[in-house]
Amino acid sequence: YPSEFLTQKLTEDNQIPVHLHVSMSLQYVAGLKGNALVEFFHGNIAEVENEELRHLMWSSVLFYKTPNVEVMACVLLSTKAVYFLLDDSFIHADEHQSDFWNKDNSDCENSSFHLSCCFVLKLNDLQSVNVGLFDQYFRITGHSADHIVTCLTRDSYNTHTFIQQLMAVLSLLARTPSPEPVDKDFYSEFGSKNTGKMENYELIHSSRVKFIYPNEEEIGDLAFLVAEKMDGLTDLQPLNILLYVLAFQVNHVEGSAQNTSLLQPKTLILTSSDLFLFDEDYISYPLPEFAKEPPKRDKYQLADGRRIRDLDRVLMGYQTYPQALTFVFDDVQNQDLMQNLTLDHFGE
């Protein structure tokens, strides 16, 4: 250990997404290659000597305690735990985090050191993994509110690869087998199905960790929500969701030194008649078992909605991934010009 194939794979995966900015400390980590990366893991991150680093991924992450702060992280999966190497700027981003991150680094603030925090989720504490719609993100849940993290990969391939690696690592854990299921009689088997809502598809791993995938009803619920949020934007017609993707809305900041642009996380939903941007809560739903009250905000909050018929043109950037798209809509909102012209010209 480690094999040449594994070190090469870790080196290939160790690339920060070009559109996201990280601190100097994480840039240093992203510059490590091959054995240097493995040695860095064992020297600075690993908690046990015989731990093996199996997978590396760069992703935005959200914590249950701080659902409004999305932060860039280097996610390292070993045979013992999942490590989230975080930007040090995250600690100062929200004053309510002082109890969450018990950390006193005031002595280091003016020195030449670049600090990173490492959040550790031990595999033995892992209870469930919720995969988001179309594998755009996944949520890892432990035994308390401190142990819930969502990785916003915005990429089905990265999500799929991480889940596969996690399942492989969990298979190595020695856990006591689950008790034998009790044979149910006919009435208990079919009597409890009166909720009217199909449960999400669950896969219970041999390590007793649940992997929960969305079912087709979730798309139906989303279509119903979208139709409800429209407020007369469209006619009453069957609504088909054609595309669901986690993206960023680009807001240019005028007058700044580099004329920078702010990226605001949004969920883009395309239907047969409209284009919607939603602010989505990726961390609070479905409710964890210990939650005593529902979250303060809805899962989907409408940020913007436009009719496809008002779309004038789409401008595409020439760079490869991530692709920048600009949607240009007509200024006249909710007015059917053709209908008005027809009435003017031909009377009744």
Helix/strand layout:
Layout lengths: L3 H10 L10 H7 L3 H12 L7 E11 L2 E13 L2 E7 L28 E7 L5 E4 L6 E4 L6 E5 L3 H15 L15 H6 L9 E4 L5 E4 L2 H14 L11 E12 L8 E11 L2 E7 L19 E8 L3 E6 L8 E5 L7 H10 L2
Helix pairs in contact: 1-3
The SS-based structural class is: alpha+beta
End-to-end gap: 83 Å
Query: Into how many domains do the coordinates divide?
Result: 2
State the shape: globular
Strand order of the largest sheet: 4-3-2-1-7-6-5-9-8
Q: Indicate the low-confidence ranges by residue numbers.
A: 191-198, 337-343
- Give the CATH topology of the largest domain: PH-domain like
CATH architectural arrangement of the largest domain? Roll
Biggest sheet statistics:
9 strands, mixed
CATH superfamily heading of the largest domain: Pleckstrin-homology domain (PH domain)/Phosphotyrosine-binding domain (PTB)
GO molecular function: kinesin binding
GO cellular component, one term: endosome membrane
Subcellular location: Cytoplasm
Domain PLEKHM2 PH: 114-178
